[in-house]
Predict the structure.
Amino acid sequence: MIAFLPTLAEPHQFSLGERLVFLALAALSVYFFWRRFGPILNRIWQSKKDPDFHLRPVGRRVWDFVWEVMLQAKVIRERPLAGIAHALVFWAFCAFALVTLNHCATIFGLGFVDPAGRLGRLYFYFAAVFAVGCAVAIAGLFVRRFLVRPKWLGELSWESGLIALLIFLLMATYLAAFFVANASALRALWWAHTLTLLAFLPLIPHTKHLHLVLSPFTVFLSRGGFSRIPPLSGDEDFGLVAGKDLTRIVSLQAYSCVECGRCTEHCPANNTGKILNPKEIVLGLRGYLNEFGPGSDQLLLGKYESQEAVFACTTCGACEFQCPVGIEHVPMIVGLRRGAVNTGAWDDDHGAKFFLALERGSNALGMSAAERDKFVEKNALPIFDGTQEYCLWLGCMGGYDPRGREIVVALVRVMRHLGVTFGVLRKEKCTGDPVRRLGNDLLFQQLAEANLEALAQFKTRKIISICPHCVRTIQEDWKEFGAPPEVEHHSEFLARFASKLTPVQSQEKIVFHDPCYLGRYRGVYDQPRKIAALAGELVEAPRSRERSFCCGAGGGLAFLGEEKGERVSHVRAAELAATGAGVVAAACPFCNTMFRDALAFQASESRPGAPAPELLDIAQIAARGLPEN
Amino acid sequence: MKIVVAIKQVPERDAPVRIAANAKWIEERDLAWAMNEPDAYALEEALQLKEKLGGEVIVLSAGPERVGSTIREALAKGADRAIHIVCDDLAGGAGGGLRNLDALSVAKLLAAATKPESPDLVLTGLQSEDLGLGQTGVILAELLGLPHATLILHVEKTDAGIKAKRELEEGWFQSIEMPLPAVLTMQSGGTKLRYATLMGIKRAKTKELRVLNAAELSVGAPPVLVLDQIALPRKQKSTQILGGSPKEAAATLVDKLKTEARVL
Ligand code: SF4
Ligand code: SF4
């Protein structure tokens, strides 16, 4: 059947003059490409080596590459329409690799795919299908960018328009060659395609289309692990202080950003009027590298990065989760904080008081350790001595905060009911989560080491905690200083025993809020829902699971005083209340405190008269149906 | 300006304090230690003066080996060098530190180490958080033969010497001028403390730490004051039912509030 379709036509003879012109233009094109791309590559290469980089496990890298680059899964999943359009363009580019090589070879009579041959016809039609898809897609993307104009794409850029036009021309000139028979028209078409190609090449490194070349590497070479904070190395590493601290991975990522704005679109800080814009953090590093280069002593916080912005981040990880080219924002932001805090450059009243309280005391709330003792005594919590199955980690919120304590008490009731043995440490210090994210490595190390020592004393094997921040910090961040015991969040524990729990069924709808550190950081979405669903009908907030919107407390911000602009917690609480649910289920004591105030505010100010939904931790939901004592 | 800051290591504020078996001191095992808070303010004031005027900040501390961690903390926060007067032996063995010394003996040790430095200014906290005698700094001034002022919140350099802000009762302040060299004992809260940083700790490793042996300082004379016994305050709760008619009961209540509870 394919035989009845038109055949791709190519001009047959090229004069020597044409060949020379082609060679000259091609050389020029490559020259302009390299003149820009060479220095970029050099800046990436001259950056500091990543001390903890390992190519292994390669399997994961290959999988990420196939999934995110070849299949464009992330691009499509997060923005389906634009994502598919992008994928069509990308796949067409892949299909065109051979077409383009063959196209250039024909001028020297070296064409290696015969358009009339069986295989050749098949291949050119294959490419033609992609060319049609690509032409439609790029036209669609053009309309979106220049007519629909979603605000996340930022200012209109003529470059994008030009690139779209060139891509469209490439496809059109390819497809037209199937229908042209006239020799001079064919020649004109060949040249049109060639010139478009040669114009396109130098544009790549001059525009955000640099990601065409870099992002496959960025995805393949990513640091690995979600929002992983790399260890410092040597006596002169204090985080990202100046250009000399930028590592190759950071620089590669800085040059890979396609300015799509997905990170900003999902950033809770940016959405509530803070000056933080994760995209600008990345582009700031790029700007810095362009001006000062990777070896510079010029401080990073200054012309290109703002200290206020960096300290407005909740480390929720929404940006990093969304980024289609694998940029890891949280290590960058925390890196810049480390640079400021580890050198003492960060001067913030709340921050300094908070650090001092933890230098001298044991907990993030700045209370006397005796308060925890009293709580332990009053509730007759057994002391962990190594014989019990679980070490119940109270954490600062569970040990000192009234709401956090209620959650612990509820969990303890459930554990006792299930006959699971547990004990609490006699002395416990803050895991160091907030100071870790604020960039205070000295304090973090002291806290991690003290805790690891206390746990090792009793050969602790399993820890359970009500706080996703504690879980994350113990499991991942402590690794730098020792081998932490296995740790799990109480939602994981409770879900395992779900069949033995029968909380009171209410007629109410329940909405579960995914804590950032449980969801995106740990990938735990279903377990807490399983518990919440025991007590009523589960409904979902518009932004849930991977897309959950932060409560505003993470990254140490809970301890830094009043936010500027709108409160993140208020925005999220309004969203949760708007689902019409009677119960908001939380699984993190920080979310819990944030929402308690925010829901009360909701009820009193923005929706007066409407009853505030009840706020419960999943442990409290699980405990509700237990027989009294 | 050359400034000596005398600091003391005290039990961390949260530390569970238990009385030792012989009731002469607290049980020191398992205790966590920290810099005496008013001394931390003295150090901060010294560092700020240095940042403004240049010069040198030398920390000075007397105590057993464990004091080293507090000295390192002071170096990490920005002091230039340190002197540690090790006085385990004077304490009669077994990790006693300063407990067998009275304020005079400690001040003598500090004075002996300070004198050869001939500093422009000596700063120390107005009292320690453990014993709270509030005398060491003042005696030190006397031994050095220098003028002193107490309860200082803030110090400024003037042409003739310094201007210092003293805290008085009920929110009153006093501003005084005095010549240098001088000794000041600092009150907490006059300024913002800085937090310790990783860079500070790393830099501190290369700073000079001179160790002096208390015995070698030969300050002579045994303590004139000896700590005999310590005890926890006795908690007392008592309930009295006041009888009689309401009028009589009210009168007795007023009387008791005045004479016994002394709240009226
Ligand atoms: S981690 Fe969250 S708050 Fe921080 S920049 Fe990314 S999206 Fe914004
Ligand atoms: S950092 Fe990633 S998500 Fe953000 S604009 Fe750049 S490419 Fe898009």
